[in-house]
Every structure is written in C-alpha cells, then in structure tokens.
Amino acid sequence: MKKLIGGVAFLLAMQLNAQNQVWNPDNGDGTFTNPIMWGDWPDPDIIRVGDDFYMVSTSMHYVPGCPIVKSKDLINWELAGYAVESYDEDPKYNLDGGNLYLNGSWAATIRHHKNKFYVGFCTPYGWGRETGHYSMCIADKIEGPWERVQFPEYLYDPGLLFDDDGKIYVVHGQHHLYVTELASDARSVKGENKLIWDKGILNPNTQQGKAGMEGSHVYKVNGMYYILCPAGGTEGWQVCLRSESIYGPYESKVIMNDFSSYPPNGMHQGGMVQLRNGDWWFMIMQDRGPIGRVPNLVPVQWIDGWPMLGDQGKDLITYPKPAVKKQYPIISPATTDEFAGKKLGLQWQWNHNPDPDKWSLTDRKGYMRLKASKATSLKDARNTLTQRVQGPSSEGSVEIDLTGLRNGNVAGFGIFEFPYAFVGVRKENNRNELIMCNDGVIIDSLMLKNENKIWVRVRVTDKDFTARFYYSADGHAYHPIGNVLSMGLGLPWTANRFALFNYSLTDEGVDGYADFNWFRFTNK
Q1: Strand, coil or helix: 508
Q2: In Å, how far are 197, 215, 311, 314 from 205, measured between CA atoms?
Q3: Measured distance CA(28)–CA(329) in Å, rounded
Q4: Distances, alpha carbon 511 to alpha carbons 203, 353, 468, in Å
Q5: Over the stretch 172-223, which tens digit does the pLDDT of each residue have?
Q6: DSSP code of 156?
Q7: 3-state secondary structure of 356
C-alpha cells in the first residue's frame, strides 16, 4: 500500500513538473534530488523566520539586485523580491560613460533580527571601479521596500552575525579572514578589522598546498562560533572553523569534500539553517559552467561538535525531504511570462539600470514594449531584459511584433553573456532583415517580405554548453538559423541568460519599438 501511495505521488509530481515545464527537485514521494534549482543562484545564504525559509543569492550587475526566494519546505521555492532596486552610485550603472559588468552585488548574506530583515553584500574593485565597498540593506518585509546603506569600508564576501550579547559582527576576507564589529544599528562600522585566520587549508585530496578561503558565513551554536567557508575554488570543498570566541583562536575541519554529482566540480559555499524540530540543513552551491552555479541542499550531521554535511562529508544527491510540518505544493521560481500584468515579473532582471522611459507593460496591454536607445552592439545596449537559462536543457521562445521598428533598430531574442548570440530583425532602408548574430558577427540573414511578426526560439543544453537558434514565420514551423553558440563565461561567475532586446545603431532609430507578446520557457 505504501509503495502504491508513493508511486501515485511520484506520478503526480511528474505531471505537475510537466505542466510547470521547469526543473523541480521534489520527487513527490517524500524525497528530493539535487540540485534544488538547476540554474544560476550562486553564493546562497539562508534563514528561517517562523515557518518560512528565505534564501538570497548573488546577481552582480543585474538589476534589480540580490534576488530573494522563499519556501515552506526548503525544496519548493518561489521568488519573493530583491534587496536592491537599482545602483545609483555611478553613472556607468546606466551605461553612461562605460559599463559596470561584474559589479553590483557579490556574495550576499541574509539575517533576521528584531523584526527586520538584513541583507549585506560587497561590491568589488578592479572591474571598472577603483575602490570596493560594503552595503547593508534593511527592510521590515522581505518584499520590501528596502533601504540600502553604503559603507566606505570594503568587507569582501561578508557573513553577518547578530550575537546574543547584542553585538553585531561581519566575518569577511579572502585568504585572510577578518572580523569587524558593526554599530548597534548595523548601519556603520564600529571597530577595526581583526585578523582571525591566515593559515590556509591543506588540500584534502592531495595533502599538499594551502588553499585560501572566502565566502564566509558565521553562526553561534551552543556557545561556539562556527565560520563556514569554501576553499579550493570551483573544484574545492567546504571548511568549518570553530572557536569559543568570535576572535579565535580557531580550529578547522573539512566538512564536505565531494564532486560526484557533477565532476570535477565540488560542493562549496553556502549557508546553514535550523528547522523548528532542531534539524540542520545546508544550502551549498556547485559550479556547472556556463549554465551557472546551482544550489544543492544537504543535511547536517553534528559529529563531535562539527557540522558534517551530507553523509559524513559525502553527497548522496537524493535525500529524504526536511521534516517540516506538512507537505507543500510543488512549485518553482517563475519563468514563462505572458506580460499580462502592469508590473514586471520577478523572474526578470535588466543588464544594467534600465531607462524607465524606454520600456512599458501598459503602452500596449499584454505586451512588453522595448523602445530603442542608441548602442553599437548588444554589449552596450541598455534595457536588455534577461532571465536565467536552466539545465540540464531549456528552451525559450518569444513572439515579436515588428510594426514599431524604425530604421537602425535591431530587435530580437537570444543568449546574453560574453560571447553572446541572437536572432533578430535589423531594419534598414524601411526593410526588415532577419539576422543571426554570433558575438558581433552576422552568420546568416534573409530579407522578410511583409511579415509584421516573427517568432524566435533558443535551445540550451549543459552537455556541451551550446545554444541553438530557430525562427518561425507563423509560430508553428520553426527553422534552424545561423550556427551554434558555444556558451562561455567572458563575464565570469554570471552564467548565460535568455535575453529580449531592442537597440538602435542610428540616431534615427531611437525610440523605435518592438512589442514582445510573450516569453515561454520549457525544460527540454
């Protein structure tokens, strides 16, 4: 009987996943299979507030920034909002005078204290800015509004701790780890950086070398301070430091060393959370190349006072679901969008701060209208609208109305990263030309006749990290066009994204518009 019930549940789960057309880890039989989300949700940190779990992730230059998702069971997640509405400290975030790709939010940390949510992150230097800094975002509700306070101090890869004596600390650094005390309102630095670790970690696989650590998250459990860090990079492992004092001395232990689920890339960097029943779980990421750094959920086993992850430091990939109060519906973060509402869906992020006068969901009901700004290529085109590609394979499709295009406009759909590729329509001399562009080179083209609409489809796979491109003149029969994009990571650590865009190569084409009727996503 139990097997019959489990089988029915599994079939129900598969049907729901087929309807949703999005990866979901819930097997429908009381177990789940990692990853939790098969897309780019890097540097995860996680908390529980009552019966709700919240996870924050890195999004770098994409706007809005610092995406936050919520869950009731740690398995099924939906988008909750963003901690950063825009980046206003430099005009290059508006693609004015240059760009700030790879800036924005890095390695966010999230905590809840005295009825307020706190999200901290660092913004680096060396990627278009001479100095880095730390930001603290504060809100009464996870949906916002959020207030952002920028610190002049640079606290790299921060981990925030509200101690039980009222003090507030950030653990931060790369290779050398520091503790910095914050003011009582968490809006400024109070103390000096105090070095707590500079020893590195011995490679557990070779027993050689000294790997540095970063991505710290800090906890206090039963009077002991635990700092959880990755070491060894993409093929690395997870380390724990522990001490009776926040300032040390610390002892260390490797608490997870496993790459079996996606060799040779190891499980490393993330956050830990405790359930109401006392169980602990850890959300840990794994680099899966141009698809992104994906979050995996593993149980925590406390062994001799150390939080060992998975099964004594090894990953089983499939686990019993966390013991929460009840079973919750199978859901995944939103993808498909019919553009039927007045507000932009939370699944979307712009490539930089958007120009609010150049896009609209209300100028034409049921359509996303993108008005062209002048640009030389997709790389410096403002208002490029993106969302994550997903593994192990995914497909995105759009319908574009071309009637609003002006001479000089290039509007279309494709994959955004460096390199990028797309299928679009270029309007010149009052004629529309369908083009396939691969990293700035026109690979294929054909003149359109009287078509006022075009359909474009892109298929992505993690098997060889490729994207393939298709077009249709009627929305039914799709034809391959151009060549294959070998997806790369010219913008390190940001992964590839589906992208809708419209820009103008000429002054004449500024404010010409493309109307996107829908974007539809499937995992196939």
Answers
A1: coil
A2: 22, 21, 18, 13
A3: 10
A4: 56, 18, 30
A5: 999 999 999 999 999 999 989 999 999 989 999 988 888 999 999 999 999 9
A6: -
A7: helix
Structure tokens at 169: 């600390």
| Residues pairing with 10 in the sheet | none
How do strand 497-504 and strand 373-374 relate by DSSP bridges? parallel
Residue 222 gets the label, from left (phi > 0), alpha (psi -120 to 50) or beta, of left
Contact of 47 with 110, CB cutoff 8 Å? yes
Structure-token match 């959020």, residue found: 146
Task: Tally the residues of the chain.
Answer: 524
Which of 318, 479, 490 minimizes the C-alpha distance to 421? 490
CB-neighbour burial class of residue 355 (10 A; exposed 0-12, middle 13-18, buried 19+): middle
Tell me if the pTM is above 0.70. Answer: yes
With CA atoms as reference, report the closest residue to 57 among 75, 84, 33, 34. Answer: 84
Q: What is the pLDDT of residues 261-277, one digit of tens each?
A: 999 999 999 999 999 99
**All residues at 6 or more sequence positions from 331 whose CB lies less than 8 Å from its CB, including other chains:** 20, 24, 76, 77, 78
In this predicted structure, the answer to whether residue 2 has a pLDDT above a threshold of 90 is no
